Amino acid sequence: MKNTKAISILGESILPGESKTIDMEIAKLHNTAKLKIPIIVCRSKIEGPVVLFSAGIHGDEINGVEIVRQIIAKKINRPKKGTIICIPIINMFGFINMSRQFPDGRDLNRVFPGSKKGSLAGRFAYHILTEIMPLVDYAVDFHAGGASRFNAPQIRLAPNSPELKQLADVFNAPFTLFSKNIAGSFRNASQKLNVKILLFEGGKSLDINDSVANAGVAGAKRFLSHLNMLDSRHIVEQPEEQTIYIEKSTWIRAKYSGLLHDHNTIGAFVKKGTVLATITDPFGKFEHIVKAPNDGYIINANHSPIIYQGDAIYHISKTILNG
């Protein structure tokens, strides 16, 4: 069905069949320089859903930015029907400073729905939620692990959500974790607006990992193909195995401070007692091994070379569901 209805974002109108980049300007830098956050909108002339691909809510999570960049560069964001909105960097302040937070020290992903006259982070949250999300039917928000912790590519979704589980099946990341929505998060606020949103985690902060980026881009194509929005020029790759659903998981914490020597088990299935890492001191006095406490998949690994007692160093699955 031909679409004739324009949509409006931040006062700018985008017609069916039109592509437009809208610059979101909420605040300037402290030197009065303008700070623009590009919102890339591509519309088909044929009526269909509105999909948002976003990244960079945490400014140091570069891997998500790279995934959305590739979606744009490879023209995956030019829909066969409907509308695709891409925001590669939501927290441009943090991206410039290579920091997770906003300049006001707040975590943008904990201040939604925000406030029109609140903190800087709160104002950004407010405009995203009021200007963009009411238009959106489906969304994938791309993240990476923080504090040098590397996430195996994974989708996170709230439990007891059949529609979201179907979309996670379609996206088909290597892992899918059930995790409750966090108060103040973008995901939580979006779902309250009835947006069907998946959260993708992969890689670590201040890093680009090609394997993780490939998993994110491939999943986005499968996502769009399922909605009949992917242009036929794009090939949809189906992995040999279906996503592994993890219902319960646990963190392994360091029993000693020292130097962490990771044995590179990220994404692998390990048996109870498998040696995951060695913790040493800088002076050759001791070596302590870290063992898997149970059979499971390693879905997150700490890549920091220096750790302290009590630091989270591995995330391992405990309960796995079939499909």
Global geometry: globular
Strand order across the biggest sheet?
8-9-11-18-16
> What is the count of helical runs?
6
Low-confidence stretches: none
How would a crystallographer describe the biggest sheet?
A: 5 strands, mixed, barrel
β-strand amount: 25-35%
Q: Kindly state the percentage of residues in helix.
A: 10-25%
Beginning-to-end CA distance, first to last residue: 35 Å
Work out the radius of gyration: 21 Å
Mean pLDDT: 94
Description:
This protein is an alpha+beta fold and about 325 residues long. The protein is built from six helices and 18 strands. The strands form three sheets. The protein has a five-stranded mixed beta barrel with strand order 8-9-11-18-16. Strands 15-14-12-17 form a four-stranded antiparallel sheet, with no helix packed on it. It is globular and about 70 Å long. The model has no long low-confidence stretch (mean pLDDT about 95). InterPro entries: AstE_AspA_cat, N-alpha-Ac-DABA-like, N-alpha-Ac-DABA_deacetylase. This is Succinylglutamate desuccinylase/aspartoacylase family protein. Pfam families: AstE_AspA_cat. Keywords: Hydrolase, Metal-binding, Zinc.
